[in-house]
Write a structure and sequence with these properties.
This protein is 58% helix and 0% strand. It is mostly helical and 146 residues long.
Length: 146
């Protein structure tokens, strides 16, 4: 019984492959279906425009208030740490925590490493300075934001 199943599977796969190859070989450009890109929803674009690293909106507002008071943040206090929030934070990290990158609002590896140095000094972060915003970084960031 097992050889029959294998034979049927191979015959079926070969037939499908043959049909697909034949269809592609005979399709001219006028018959080819246009390739379309999936639409990106406004929600997905909004979610990608900020990075709270696990903070709630209220906690992120606390961070924004700190940044507004000390680091020149002038955007809205909305609880979404977007590029302007991170630019202000990078100014702080550059002055005190060894951040050497551009003030570009991108919370990338170098920004996270400087943030980890701040969190290690005063907020109970015990992990490596590795630039990865893992659970330890996120927990210490929550303590910072409280």
């Amino acid at each position: 019984m097992r050889p029959n199943v294998l034979t049927r599977t191979l015959v079926g796969v070969t037939a499908v492959a043959g049909l697909a190859a034949g269809s592609l070989a005979t399709a001219g450009t006028s018959f080819a279906a246009p390739v379309s890109q999936p639409a990106v929803s406004a929600r997905a674009a909004t979610l990608a425009s900020y990075e709270n690293f696990g903070l709630t909106t209220a906690e992120a507002k606390n961070v924004q208030n700190f940044l507004a008071e000390y680091w020149g943040y002038t955007d809205s206090i909305d609880g979404q740490l977007g590029p302007n929030s991170w630019k202000a934070f990078q100014r702080c990290l550059k002055q005190y925590w060894g951040y050497t990158g551009a003030i570009d609002g991108d919370p990338g590896t170098n920004t996270i490493k400087a943030l980890q140095r701040l969190l290690k000094a005063d907020y109970g972060y015990t992990g490596d300075i590795d630039g990865i915003a893992g659970s330890g970084t996120r927990a210490a960031f929550k303590r910072f934001a409280a």
